[in-house]
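so im writing up the methods section and need the Nucleotidyl transferase record in one place, dumping it here so i stop losing it
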Amino acid sequence: MKAIILAAGKGERLKPITETRPKPLIPILCKPLLAWQLDWLGGLGDLIDEIVVVVGEMKDKVVEFLSKTNAMRRVRVREQKEQLGTADAVLKAVEGFDENEDVVILYGDVYLDSPEVLYRVADSRENTILGVEVDDPSQYGVLLARGDELIKIVEKPGERYSNIVNAGIYKMRVGDILANKDISLSPRGELEFTDIVNKIAEKTSVKVVRAMKGGWIDLGLPWHVIEANKMALSKLRGQVVKGSIEQPVYISGDVYIGEESYVKAFTYIEGPVYIGRGVKIGPTARLRPYTVVCEGSVIGFSVEIKESVIFENVHANHLSYIGDSIVCEGVNLGAGTITANLRFDEKSVKMRIKGKVVDSRRRKLGSVIGAWVKTGVNVSIMPGIKIGSYSWIYPGAVVKSDVPPKTILKTETKTTLDVMKIEDEHRRIQEEVSSSSP
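--- predicted struct ---
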């Protein structure tokens, strides 16, 4: 049996995270989501003899990652050059497969609390779909089922039919996929694999296997990255220290400190916390529960972090607060940078996604700071704000609305923000240098 991972999507709703990395390489405990999925499939042993990864957006980064993994000997890459939908991706993946063969299919944005449920899908004797119970099914494809048999997948229904939604994991016979491949474009202009599944369900049995509630998440929106890492952190057990600690340091709860990391004196670490390789913490830093800090980052003097995901090579050297936020790779936070995470009225925080305001249903949510952003001293970022990659936020700015990528945000007064493109600022600086040259 073969497995397919659909890793070609653009991840538009995850920007600015996906401005510089494809969705499958988003870190969960500092390990790319794709690496987790490959490990799950590897755990199926002899059930899986080959894995096909369908790539598209930023394919070079995915291929580079795959080339460095032990799984590469069983992995074959196929490219989806045009983003025509999940059905098109699956059909490209199964080209040349035996029609009598079964395939396990995983969407590339799915994270599981326990891979055991994947075995139940793969070991099924019939076409199978994984369902999971959620509190709000309105943003998912809902499974209409009679007992354990699928009737139909209804995408984002206006009324509540069921709380069981499509988890994006299937086992299907190749011949059934090919026999039902003639489908129409969906309202969003794509060929949806769920439409193929619905056609199969009209003609033959499709079994529904159910995952435990709370044991699944798909990384569709920025705060889902925080929640997926929180889910993974809940599995930490004990205190594992592979780096060095300068006493006195207070550590409580479940904590992992990676190799070559160094924790300086008077730091508080309140687990669950995961610290990757080569990280420097402190002195007098505070890492509160559900914090992840990835390789090469520096969390310096009197910096406090709570329920946040810090990507690789981030520098927060002094006197900053990062709460319920995502800070992407290479960011440099100036002294006194604050990510506010709670509205004055204590209502749930909203975030603008692809031009629409979306309720996160989180009482506390900070900001999403894209890769290689720089902030000056005493910058304050309001709840639910996104800052695009490569942007500069000048000292003293109060960021109240999203900042596009490659933008300079200056504050001339306490209330006025002047936004210009970084390219314009670079041009101005070059002109000044040229005019002052002898």
